[in-house]
Amino acid sequence: GISSRSHVSVAYFAERLPAGPRLGLSLAVDVLILAFLAVMVWWGWKATLRNVDIPLSVTQVSYAWVYVVIPVTSVLMIVRTLVLMQRDIARFRHFHQAPEDGQRVII
Predict the structure, then answer these.
(1) Whole-angstrom distance between the N-terminal and C-terminal Cα of the chain?
(2) Can you tell me the distance from the alpha carbon of 107 to that of 9, in angstroms, rounded to the nearest whole number?
(3) Which of 12, 18, 62, 84 is most buried, judged by most C-beta within 10 A?
(4) pLDDT tens digit string along 5-64?
(5) Residue 80: how many CA atoms within 13 Å on its side-chain side?
């Protein structure tokens, strides 16, 4: 997942890059992840608002509570991705090392 950076990837070429380009590739992938999550926030929020007046059949609670999980979780994932990006940059600045060993970047 996002927090452990265990998403599916093909790292054969990325692992052979020097630390600087590898960091750049990692940050580029993180930007793509952020863009996708931003879309999830937008559409999740729209879906939530569309379902505010629709009650669940058994509990009569707004159906929006089912959909609000999407934008809330996406915002949390955005925060976590930004923290990971900041750590990667700090690691490179201080130690001139690529992103953490457990990370795999998508190419």
Answers:
(1) 17
(2) 7
(3) 84
(4) 666 666 778 788 898 999 999 899 999 999 999 999 999 999 999 999 999 988 999 999
(5) 13
